[in-house]
Design a protein that fits this description.
Layout (H helix, E strand, L loop, with lengths): L1 H5 L5 H6 L3 E3 L6 E3 L6 H9 L4 E3 L8 E6 L2 E6 L11
Parallel strand pairs: 2-3
Antiparallel strand pairs: 1-2, 4-5
Length: 87
Amino acid sequence: VIVNVVDFKMSLADAVAAPRIHHQALPDIIGYERNGLLPAVVDSLKAMGHEVRMRGGYSGDIAAIQRVGGRWVGVPDPRRGGGAAGW
């Protein structure tokens, strides 16, 4: 989410709603949600020796806040019910 906002200049709402990609040291697997990686990227990662798996469902959920124009804006993850608020 942070990479999408900072590096790709997505709105916080779009970044929270976007498919997620996850990697950690153990297990050494790149997991991604449906539509999270282009097929060519998956093929390229596999060609480099990475283990890549599409995850069923979604990878967690988030409630995020961002300072916009001097106020806080809350964005809930559309994957689940809930909300986010800032003041």
